[in-house]
Amino acid sequence: MFTPTDKEKKAFIERTKAQRQQRQAERLEKVRLTKQENAARIAQRWWLRHICKRQATHDCWNAWDTMVKHDAQTLDDGFRIAGIYCLLSRHHPSESRKRLGDMCKCLTKKFKHNLSTKQQLTYYALLVDSRYNVQALKYLCVILNQCLASVCESSVDAHNQLQMYLTGTELSTLLQFLNPKTYQQTNRFLDDPQYRLPDPAYALTSAARTVFDECLLKFNIRDPAIVRVQRIVKLEHKSAKYSAGVLSPEDGKMVRAIQLWLTTLTRLCLFPIEFFSNSSSSGTIERRRRQAIQFICTNILAVPLLPTMINSMMANHLMKLVGIADVYAEITNKNQADRTMIEIMLSGNGCIFLLGNLIHIAQQLQQQDISLIVTMTNILIETAQTYFSERQISPYIHYHPLFKWSSSTWGDSIDTLVFEKVQHSQIEYLWSRTFMGQVFSDVLTFDTGDNGGGGYASTVSAKGKSGTGGIKSRLLFKKKQQQDQISAIDGKQYSQLAEFSMDIEAIFSMYMTLSSLFATQSKEIVNKIAFTPRLMPKLWKLMNTFGPRGQMIIYLDAARRPRQKPEDDIEKEPLIKMLKVFCEACSLVFLTLDDNDIFEDEHPFSVQDLIKLGSFLNTFYFALLQHQSQDKSISSTTVSSNATSTATMPPLPSSVRSFRAAHRLLLQIYDLDVRHPYCPTDHWLLVSDPSMTKSALLTLFNSSKTPAVQPFLDRLRQGDPVPLRILQLMPHTVPFKTRLTVFRDWVALDRANLMVTSSRALRVRRQNVLEDGYRGLGGLPPSSWKGNIRVKFVNELGVEEAGIDQGGPFKDFVSLLVEEVFKPSVGLFSATSTNNMCYPASTSYIQGPRHIELFEFIGKVIGKAVYEGILLDVQFASFFLAKLLGRNVFLEELREMDEDVWRNLVFLKRYDGSLEDLGLYFATDEEAFGTVTSHELKYRGRNIAVTNDNKVEYIYRMADYKLNQQTREQTRAFIQGFRTVISESWIRVFSPTELQRVISGDDTDFDVTDLRQHTTYQNGYFDHHPIIRTLWQIVEEFSSDEKRAFLKFVTSCPKPPLGGFDYLQPPFTIRMVAVDPETTQGNDGLGLMKTLFKVGNAGGAKTGRLPSSSTCFNLLKLPAYTKKSLLREKLIYAINSNTGFELS
């Protein structure tokens, strides 16, 4: 308890504390009020000063306005006006912008020297006045920079309309004070020697140089010019889209105003180069001239389409002052710092725009240095290519309207229309017929002597003079006949040949880079090269002269050279790009050739040249396949596993991937030989037999290497990637029997590794095989197609037929299904008119909306049959088999499909008159079931007439439509289904004709002795049974058609299996059955004994049971006829009736 004294003490403490806190709060409040009062005073003083300053500024501007408007102005007044303006504009740019026009008028007017004299002077007089020259020059630079900023201004108003400065006094001021000629007039000088500089002419020249350095050469003209060019392109596009290219009056006025602005700015930018070009030559002047050219390149020529937007007089002046050689010298400057600076300023888009404008300038020039254009194009395109990518990866993070992704520092936001117009109207000139005729003129005039079997250049003459049609001709080749040898070339001639070859290599390097950068135009570029008249055969002859030994030896040596390191890339080999483009273009040419071109006209290559070309490509690509892959991420174990289990190739070496076109061309020449043999026997084989060793393979390329001897097949089974590559990419170099063995090994290995153990049961009515088969197997997972599929046939009552399925009923099911689906009445497949080969029908839609799924199902069934080794009695068209193998088919294959269309296209190709008279367009009409449907061969093809210039394209597109596009969906579905069971890599080892043999067997009469050796017997028959001996005698005596009918009767296929009847599964079996039809087959032992010992009614045999078969088991049920004539009669009747089960 507190005492009274304690309570009073506590109250006192609390009261004192409260008072202290109150005093503290009062002090803080007083400080706050003081600070607030001080802040208010400061703000008030600032505001008063601001008001005073604004008023003073306003008064100054008013005074300035009065001074400017005063009529009688002296030179001193002009200096003060400029000085006050520069002072005020530094702090009040918005006010100065309003008065810039007045300042410009004042600057360009004439002043009096003083009020007492009548001498008229201009502002230039201040530049030679010792009192004012320094400040007057500074004022002039400030005003000119403001003029440039105003002239180049662009803004967007409230209505989203682009507002651009197009004309005004600022532009006139720039034209006057940036013109170097105005600094050279003597009437600019002061008459008063007291203040005039000692050398006024030099002072004015120095002033002009300073104006250029401090104003124009530092300013960015490019961006505002691009804005205005973009506006013109959009207006022109709008007029082309909505008013047939006619501009509205308002738009026309705008376009003309922008063109005038662009012309004026171009004129301004040319002043520095005029000034420095006319100055006395010295190191400094030359450096400044190059600086001016650099400015032109980065600010004028880097503006897209600018030479096409300015008037012709200014464009000619531009071409006169800045030649292509000047630009070339600048971009190939030896000074690395200067060259790097230009590349940085141009960036990727600038290189493209600069190239486009230079190409436009080159078009306007009558004398063109094609070599210079090619070299410059290579430099700019290769530089630009480093800024673009098709994938969005760092540093390519900005979307580009033409090249997808970009790392350029500027230009990516320019409208797509501008890029497209640059490409179409400027850069595409590089692959125009006009330019290609010039750039390839030396190749087309190249001549060689036909030295026996070689056909190579033999003699090199002195260097020729440069011409206007193409690259400087350095060589003239004289004809000189020599047998089987090449004449020696001395050092000087060889040097000239090497120089010439490098020039040609530069051309093809240019086109390769253009194809890579302009990916959408790649086909067009290669097409133009391919169909330049006489270019391909001339290029082939030219390449055969390269190197000391000629005959393409330098390319074979390049292919044989080991590639262990990334820097050993074959792309770095000399003259290799020429070969790559040749292969690309030549493969395109072969798509449009027919047999008449090649074997009758021998155009574009003679048969001998084709043999040599095929031999070279065969050896060259075979050598490339020997290279080791540089992908270290894949272990040898993985490679071995892939090679042996799935026949999937490991990653290919970069050299192989780089020459896909060479591989494509090689296969085209090989397929031509398969279709129309013209090469010597075994011309293509490089692996002579299955025991060919790898050492023997390598001795083809380098006899110094002798690795351990191991058989080709053994190395393949061990996972060596080289034999696998050969089988997959060059199967024609390996004998067919070897490849067939490999294929069967792959299938057997896949079957052994198969994890599926379950089987699928299927009930099928013989009259509804397709319907029941699709219903039962259509939804089967892909993995289950390689498993067991057990088939039970049921009759009309739904009762299953007797028998045990050991694979035979499935074979019968497949045979019946194939027989049904390939009937023309079904409508799924069509047949060629000449040889009844099958291919998907374009009218398959009559089967309903699921007809595409039917093709996939049929593809799976055919694939399953090949997987199981079941031979099918179906013949596919060779062009369809080629597509099954993943190959392209074109004109010559069309002959098999529709000979009438092929003949018409060949007629067009050879037609010498005007094709426009025929009234053809890039469209074709198809009639089906009374309805005519039109199909365009290209975009808006109905409106594109076929002319002599585009007839090759029309032929190409028509053949492509007929062979590839018309049944694209059906073919794709069939191939997808087939590859569900049979891997594409497995069948890639075959040619189309060989694949047909795999599907349906050899198209020859079977060997009776081979069939007899692989026949099994049941129910008492044996090989030397009299009836069996009689049977084989009869079969030996059969005609070819009867043998085929017999084989089809017992196996459902008229062709023998590949490799002989050892591969027939199940084996061919002959079972004895009773002759008497009343005897129960197979159950009456007495009847069989009578049959065995020929006991019974001979007369009953004549009316007895006919031979019958179970094709599902390759089983012949043969009654024991007592006479050979009767056996022959019954057998021939049975096989020709072709009704199988029902005859017995």
UniProtKB/TrEMBL annotation:
Coiled-coil intervals: none
CDD domains: HECTc
Enzyme Commission identifier(s): 2.3.2.26
Key words, A-Z: Transferase, Ubl conjugation pathway
Domain HECT: 781-1144
SMART domains: HECTc (SM00119)
GO molecular function per UniProt: ubiquitin protein ligase activity
GO biological process: one example: protein polyubiquitination
EC class: transferase
InterPro entries: E3A/B/C-like, HECT_dom, Hect_E3_ubiquitin_ligase
Species whose genome carries this gene: Phascolomyces articulosus
Keyword Zinc-finger among record annotations: no
Keyword tRNA processing: no
Recorded catalytic activity of this chain's protein: S-ubiquitinyl-[E2 ubiquitin-conjugating enzyme]-L-cysteine + [acceptor protein]-L-lysine = [E2 ubiquitin-conjugating enzyme]-L-cysteine + N(6)-ubiquitinyl-[acceptor protein]-L-lysine
Protein name in UniProt: HECT-type E3 ubiquitin transferase
Active site residues according to the UniProt entry: 1112
